[in-house]
Write a structure and sequence with these properties.
It contains eleven helices and 15 strands. By secondary structure, the protein is of the alpha/beta class. The chain folds into two domains: about 180 residues, Medium-chain alcohol dehydrogenases, catalytic domain (Quinone Oxidoreductase, Chain A, domain 1); about 130 residues, Rossmann fold (3-Layer(aba) Sandwich). The longest helix is centred in the middle third of the chain and has 21 residues. The two termini are about 25 Å apart.
């Protein structure tokens, strides 16, 4: 399809009218969504997940994405490709999950998605499951399999294991044959982790969780740690890393400002003889160009397609399952962001737009 012929389209959206608390600054508006450019597609959005980083963006605390209002938040989208720019025409009519261009714009009934991130969903995967599979399991695969080189029989520590990304790492870790120790912040969440398959689950608010993890590993420490929390959780995790262990630094849920923090000391890493592995997942068309312009090492779209096939097969055979904590009505979006910010949620929160039923 020739992108020049495609016209803007009206969409219903949640718009951040100012920087601040999502419940106060998000407004439902009718907006105009532009035509897709080269390497982009325009998606009739049916569902998407809420993310912690969405809250950081809306509050103006995410220095990686310093957006100025008004803007439409939202880092994911599931739906059918309605039109495409140059180089992405083959995706028209396909139902996909992907990341909106520049990682915002997903809270709308139509969204512009970076075609490099677009992953097709088979008919047997519902919209909600497609949304819930996307980032937790692609991030989990990249972290555990590619960066952490997790092997069957190894011990995996998963922090915030009842949350959106942690629950995916827990489920995937078990599928990859690991012994999983999960941490969570309440007895209810600890039980939730056990239901997901954790071999052991620890309430980090009750006593010294590091000591508990060391006891569970007979003093050896863990082989791999999935850490999307950061801050004190990261430095405490250094105390329970085993010899040749791999600490996966996958996020900063404790405080996004930690992304630029100076709280890490080389001493425990060097003397502990374990690796600290950065984890940032964005599939791109040209990794070398990204490296030369931004200085980042991001995997190629081809790697994402390979991972997607593996994850879909694991989902089809029952080796993994999506973890949907709640399916959220369009009108309830701000309230659910508040619950997420207050750490009152489990699994993924999937919003259904109801716009293209």
């Amino acid at each position: 399809m020739n992108d020049v012929a495609v016209k803007p389209i009206s969409a219903e959206a949640w718009v951040a009218t100012a920087l601040g608390d999502p419940a106060k600054v998000l407004e439902r508006q009718t907006v105009e969504v532009r035509a897709p450019g080269p390497g982009e597609v325009r998606v009739a959005v049916r569902a998407f997940c809420l993310n912690f980083n969405d809250i950081d963006v809306i509050q103006g605390r995410y220095t990686t994405m310093p957006l100025q209002p008004p803007f439409i938040p939202g880092m994911e989208a599931v739906g059918v490709v309605e039109s495409a720019g140059l180089g992405a025409e083959h995706l028209v009519g396909r139902r996909i999950v992907g990341i909106p261009s520049m990682a915002f714009g997903g809270y709308a009934s139509y969204a512009i998605v970076d075609a490099a991130t677009a992953l097709e969903l088979p008919a047997w995967v519902g919209d909600a499951d497609g949304a819930a599979l996307h980032y937790p399991f692609h991030l989990g695969w990249f972290a555990l399999h590619e960066r952490g080189r997790l092997k069957p029989g190894e011990t995996l520590l998963v922090h915030a294991a009842a949350g959106g990304t942690g629950s995916g790492a827990l489920v995937l870790g078990k599928a990859l044959g690991a012994r999983v120790i999960a941490t969570a912040g309440s007895d209810e969440k600890v039980e939730f982790c056990r239901e997901l398959g954790a071999d052991h689950a620890v309430n980090y608010r009750n006593g010294d969780w590091v000591e508990q993890v060391m006891d569970l590993t007979y003093g050896r420490g863990v082989d791999v740690a999935f850490d999307a929390v950061g801050g004190s959780v990261t430095t405490d995790t250094f105390r329970c890393m085993g010899l040749h262990g791999r600490h996966l630094m996958a996020g900063f849920a404790e405080d996004i400002a930690l992304e630029d923090g100076d709280y890490l000391s080389p001493r425990p890493i060097a003397y502990g003889n374990f690796d600290v592995c950065g984890v940032c997942l964005v599939y791109v068309t040209d990794p070398l160009a990204v490296r030369r312009t931004l200085g980042f090492n991001w995997p190629a779209r081809s790697e994402g397609l390979d991972a997607h096939v593996k994850l879909l097969e694991m989902l089809r055979t029952g080796a993994i399952r999506t973890v949907i904590g709640a399916e959220v009505a369009w009108s309830d979006l701000p309230a659910q962001l508040e619950r997420m910010q207050a750490r009152q949620t489990t699994g993924r929160l999937v919003v259904t737009t109801g716009a293209h039923d």
